[in-house]
Design goal:
single chain, 9 helices, LeuE-type, cell membrane, transmembrane, membrane, Lysine exporter protein LysE/YggA family
Amino acid sequence: MDAQLTLFLQAGAIGLSIAAPVGQIGLLAIQRTLQYGAAAGIATGLGAAVADAIYGAVGAFGVTALIAFLVEQRTLLAGGGSALLLWMAWRIARQPPARRAGGPGERAPLARLFAGTFVLTLANPTTILSFIAVFGALAGRSAVASPWVMVAGVAAGSALWWFILAGAVGRLRTRFDARWQHRVNLVSAALLAGFALWQLAALLR
């Protein structure tokens, strides 16, 4: 197999593996897919995928000054990300269910959904450190390491997961009536708030 293709697939697997665990972005993608439809879930996930690609580029190109700055600012970033997560949880808890699941309903604010998860992912210090470590190791053991190939692979792998997740949840959307959508909103809000409080507690240790 071509070495560049192998590197792309390896980076794609990294992007997929980092995106796939159900954390705050996954919960947001599921909740927004149920609220607005698959396009909203995809937009939510792609915001995270672009942020993943940016941190992948930092790790792949080995921008040491930026890496050092991000590591130094991880406490501030974590605090800001936690505050944003609490705000999102509050909005979701107050959000009414879609008028009709599977119907036209309210139009999804795709740009806002994309931007929100983009900023949230950038503010996650775990994302910073994981990409720096993984990409440094991947570039170090590949004789033909190409930063752009690695960045493209991460973006593709991460985006693939969000298309799969939003598509699967979107197919089930018509089975959720207004009562169940409201319950999903409350559970999602509670879990997101829990993620935020856990991050804040970790900062105070």
